Structure prediction request, 390 residues.
Amino acid sequence: MKNKDYSFSKLHAEAFTCIQCGYCRRVCPVYQKIGRESATPRNKVYQLQNLLSSYPPFANIPPEFAERFWQCTHCRRCVDVCPAHMDLMNLWQGVKHQLAKRGAVPKQIMATKQRIKEHGNIFANPNEVRSYWALSLPGYPEVLRPQDPEIAVFVGCVASFYPLLVTIPLAFAQIMLKLGIKAYFLGADEYCCGHPLITAGEVAVSREVARKNLAKIRELGLEKLVFLCPSCLSSWHEDYPVYNQGELGITLVHYTEYLADLVREGRLQFAPYPHRTTYHDPCDLGRHLGIYDPPRRILQSIPELEFVELANNRADSLCCGGGASLHMIDQELALGIRHARLEQIKASGVETVVTACGECRQVLTFGLQDVKSAIRVLDIAELAAELVVN
Ligand code: SF4
Ligand code: SF4
Prediction:
């Protein structure tokens, strides 16, 4: 369990650990795109040292300083290369927390916060229709709430509501039904996990949705929670224990871990897929949660699938530009960041690219469409549902 500390003393201690080596400069996708020193993690820390050294701290916030912090995609690449082992994610969130307290926050983040507060989801949809992705499932809605379930499923806002992505929970539900596994979908009892607010350093509302989600899981007595969205899992894994002031006592897994276990046990088998295929590691699943092998194990168990790695993979994977709501704050930058990843996918000569995050799935789909590529983009759940033979 990581401690979240956004106090001046913690930010001060962390910021002055920086040795200004610049290793983070090389890997930051925002700097790579913008090309200005002010966009490097190193320079952000340097500017922060100045702000913390003034009295009172954060008295005069240069507009460019605030802008650079809100452009961070939360990709975590800087953390992995920092020789001073700085807790940079806490630092970035802590600075945003201080900026938000002083009103230096993009209106899009404020609007998201309001939608989550009032509606329980990022789209301001009625939360009661969270399971409408399953309308076509035989036996809906009872089929989503079986007696004595083996697992509970947390879908997340994006795949619950976004039309392009509702095929992800649908695919996972179809696999569970085909294998005879009783899976309980939280549906209307699920609230936004709070991730868009957590990355913005916004504590109060994210703590409130965490409390509601935890209370519901405890009320239902569910012990194993399977996540379809890596960002939701990351919030539950890294932030909910902090809010809870202790471990949750619930087993939390990403659905690729769950499916990989079913493959290992021989419960999940696939028809052949004779296509050259690659995998894009989502930042939240990979660098944040360290889940690299389960998606690959699933793909490598598919007969005749020719698996190839992208030039940057696993911990060295490139960000797709979809993290930390950047597409809402600065769409041009988000589109610019995705470009490098699309070029790698095209260069790999694949027919299919799969990923395991709704946000990445959406970014790659639109990106490859925009460049008129015929490469098929799928979430692993979608590919698995298409090929399952049990
Ligand atoms: S998390 Fe990613 S985008 Fe943010 S500063 Fe670090 S490398 Fe740059
Ligand atoms: S890699 Fe770490 S120590 Fe080096 S400049 Fe970046 S933040 Fe500072």
